[in-house]
Amino acid sequence: MELSSVILTTGGSVTFFSLVNAGVRSLPMPESAHRNAWKWRNIATSFVHSFITAIWAVLCFFHHPQMAEDLIETFSVFSHALVSFSIGYFIYDFSDMVLNQKINASWELLFHHTVVIACFGLSVISCNYVGFAVVALLVEINSVFLHLRQMLRMSGISAGTMYRVNSIINLGTYVVFRINTLAWMTRWLVLNRDKVPLVAYTLGSVGMAIMTVMNIVLFYRLLRSDFLKTSTRETKKDKDM
Q: How far, in Å, CA of 106 to CA of 201, rounded?
């Protein structure tokens, strides 16, 4: 794939999500979300990315199953475009947070986005590990329900059947598509150590180590907030998750 195609797809993605954010701004917003309108728009835009990417990632393996057998060199134009598209989203979201939120309130996500942009960037430019990147994007299946959970809470709906069902699906897909996928990716990287150059291996190892810690912490917070009985103080602290 030519670098110009990567730049065009990534740049188009940045523009697309900027327009999505602007579109969300023009839509009605729940009264309870008005106190943090920027966060509502940011989460809604992230929801759109997760929804598109979740379907796209599954279709990549459905239409090109050979990629599952070789995550290093085998890929399709469709899957390469997905990774480039996601880089554009992470660049957009990184910029959105830097411009609208205090660094100390978002440094974890900013660091996460930096690692993802670096890893995905290496993949699309070298045309290697595209399949590995698409596997990583399967976590967006869970992100659909994770972002929906945040939007429900911001809408003042943190109880009831709808929220409860989403919480169960969210935790279930979290285990399957975040924890299990990350564990599988770590195992794959270790087993294929001799096939992966030192730079890519180091970048991938550091990235997954960071993701593992972040995922464990978030899983505990979700479990405590939605399923474990906590004190009033803890519940209040988790309200903005």
A: 27
Q: For 77-103, how does the pLDDT look when each residue is reduced to its tens digit (9 = 90+)?
A: 999 999 999 999 999 999 999 999 888
Cα dihedral value 51, 55, 58, 63, nearest 10? -160
Distance between CA atoms of residues 29 and 9, nearest Å? 31
For 3, counting Cβ atoms within 10 Å of its Cβ (0-12 exposed, 13-18 middle, 19+ buried), the class is exposed
CB 144 within 8 Å of CB 51: yes
Cα–Cα distance for residue pair 19/23, rounded to 1 Å: 6
Per the structure block, which two tokens stand in for 38?
């920027």
Cα separation values, 44 from 4, 47, 226, Å: 30, 5, 21
Cα radius of gyration rounded to whole Å, the chain: 18
Q: pLDDT (tens digit, 9 = 90+) per residue, 107-145?
A: 888 988 998 999 899 999 999 999 999 999 999 999 999
